[in-house]
Design a protein that fits this description.
Number of strands: 9
Structural class: alpha+beta
Strand content: 35-45%
CATH topology of the largest domain: Ctag/Cox11 (Pfam 04442)
Number of domains: 2
Largest sheet: 5 strands, mixed
Radius of gyration: 22 Å
CATH architecture of the largest domain: Sandwich
CATH class of the largest domain: Mainly Beta
CATH superfamily of the largest domain: Ctag/Cox11
């Protein structure tokens, strides 16, 4: 019996398509995240708490840290930084807050995704505590003040004098576990 060359071609194309899908959606994201964490590319900051620096302040230098908030277009939130800018000394720990409000009439879960610009500064910007580490549950129309404790590493290149920390806030679409609709 002869095999049909068209079926053989279709089989090869389907196999190739499945391999490309697996590579693009299963293999690449973890590799991309590892490379971004190591190099600070794409403005990614640490995704887990780090320890506070001890005695590493660079008193002769200040950096301007700008705080920006973005709301995902499909989310019913109010989200803003408590302050727009801070003058910080590298190596010293600072605290500020972002304020988020669920504007919908139902309980919701929000999550913040951080980004740092310039991207080369991301590996020098460290968060000790951040609301972005965990999802945030809100009751209907509830407002939260969410802390951010951070420091800029003393070995930040001198060519960088302003760092912009931007958070995009979005509704995860998950059901809240610990709050009820009002």
């Amino acid at each position: 019996m002869k095999s049909n060359p068209h079926l053989l071609l279709v089989g090869k194309l389907v196999t190739l398509s499945m391999a490309m899908f697996a590579f693009g959606y299963i293999v690449m994201p973890p590799l991309y995240n590892i490379i971004c964490d190591i190099t600070g590319l794409n403005g990614r900051t640490n995704s887990a708490a780090v320890s506070a620096p001890v005695g590493q302040e660079v008193a002769d230098r200040t950096i301007t840290v700008e705080f920006v908030s973005v709301i995902n277009s499909s989310a019913a939130w109010s989200f803003k930084p408590q302050v727009q800018t801070m003058e910080v000394i590298p190596g010293k720990t600072y605290t500020t807050n972002y304020i988020a409000k669920n504007l919908s009439g139902a309980a919701a879960v929000g999550q913040a995704v951080p980004s740092v610009a310039p991207s080369s500064a991301a590996k020098y910007f460290n968060k000790i505590e951040c609301f972005c580490f965990t999802r945030q549950e809100f009751e209907a129309r509830a407002e939260k003040e969410m802390p951010l404790i951070f420091f800029v590493e003393p070995d930040l290149p001198r060519s960088i004098d302003t760092i912009t920390l931007s958070y995009t806030y979005f509704n995860t679409g998950e059901e809240p576990e610990n709050v009820s609709d009002s």
